[in-house]
Design a protein that fits this description.
Helix content: 25-40%
Mean pLDDT: 83
Radius of gyration: 18 Å
Largest sheet: 4 strands, mixed
Number of helices: 6
Order of helices and strands: HHEHEEEHEEHH
Low-confidence stretches: 1-13, 189-195
Strand content: 15-25%
Length: 205
């Protein structure tokens, strides 16, 4: 009974996809495991980075933005978005030190490409993946890849800008306690015909 009640509650709170999202979802079914709708890449971070602070910034970023927590479930054959509970998938906080490798640049390029080419699981899996690579003490890359169902190119710029802002706020001990400044599920039905240009590459210094 408990399971049935939980499923019923989840279904009643899970919105369907927008028309554009349905088009993407249906096309993804046709393409099977192709990574056609994967977007993102990596953010280069120059300078020394506090790993613990950065991991906390990623955690807060995901807490504040429901789009990064969304998963897709089929309810009676209809795809619906589910806001998955925390804690985070550990992959989001993954750290790989390449600084002792003979060619860290080449390995970093390969890892970034692998993350972009790996298909997402649209049957309840995360639709966002990330990880931090260290090439040297002053050279890092943050891999960030999204399924197009939850983010577009403009949105990735917002995510990167917010991550940098949180990191700086943590350094200054001025983190804003905002639970969800970008409420994806609430804003999803609205269609915005025009949007401002995405912000420039953010600074973590």
């Amino acid at each position: 009974m408990g399971k049935d009640r939980q499923t019923s509650t989840a279904n009643s709170l899970s919105p369907g996809l927008s028309r554009a999202q349905r088009d993407i979802w249906f096309d993804q079914q046709r393409l099977a495991d192709a990574a056609t709708y994967n977007i993102g890449g990596y953010l280069s971070i120059a300078g020394r980075l506090d790993r613990q602070r950065f991991a906390l910034a990623v955690t807060l970023l995901t807490q504040q933005n429901d789009a990064l927590r969304l998963r897709l479930n089929l309810v009676e054959g209809v795809p619906r978005l589910i806001d998955a509970p925390l804690p985070l998938d550990q992959e989001l906080l993954a750290f790989t030190d390449l600084s002792n490798q003979p060619d860290p640049q080449r390995l970093a390029d390969q890892l970034c490409q692998d993350a972009l080419d790996r298909p997402f699981d649209l049957q309840g899996g995360p639709l966002f993946r990330a990880g931090l690579l260290k090439l040297s003490d002053s050279n890092y890359r943050w891999i960030n890849v999204y399924h197009h169902l939850i983010c577009d190119g403009w949105g990735t710029g917002l995510v990167l800008g917010r991550l940098a802002a949180i990191y700086r706020e943590l350094a200054a001990r001025q983190v804003e306690k905002r639970s969800n400044p970008w409420d994806f599920l609430a804003l999803k039905p609205a269609d915005t015909p025009q949007r401002p240009a995405p912000p420039p590459c953010p600074s973590f210094l």
